[in-house]
Design goal:
This protein is mainly α and 114 residues long. Helices cover 46% and strands 5% of the residues. The chain contains 6 helices and 2 strands. The chain has a two-stranded parallel ribbon.
Length: 114
């Protein structure tokens, strides 16, 4: 996880987030549809499963079946937001907020998979 300020889009940290990972494909939403990020994925030989944003004039093909798996991540984010300290970000420091997100993630994992 990488924390950003509330007004910063998470796509700005996409390259840093996947740095050092061995990926075959990457599933992301339309917010990550930038030429720079797609070029970065192509250089790393990673299949980009990102639907084209509405501002694109040319249609870009992507695996719609694989994109359907993205709902699992969306469901997990929704479960994390059930924790009030995460949803409202009451914590004043990034360290405390990061710790609460990690704790909430662990609690969800234990409840759902243990």
């Amino acid at each position: 996880m990488i924390l950003t300020a509330g007004q910063v889009h998470e796509a700005t940290q996409a390259k840093a987030l996947i740095e050092g990972l061995t990926l075959i494909s990457l599933i992301a939403d339309k917010g990550y549809d930038t030429d720079d990020f797609r070029a970065h994925l192509a250089d790393a030989e990673v299949d980009a499963v990102i639907p084209p944003s509405s501002r694109r004039t040319a249609e870009i093909a992507y695996d719609q079946n694989a994109y359907g798996l993205r709902h699992r991540v969306e469901c997990f984010v929704n479960k994390i937001k059930h924790y009030r300290r995460v949803a409202t970000r009451y914590d004043k420091t990034a360290r405390n907020f990061f710790s609460m997100v990690a704790l909430a993630s662990a609690m969800i994992w234990l409840r759902d998979f243990a």
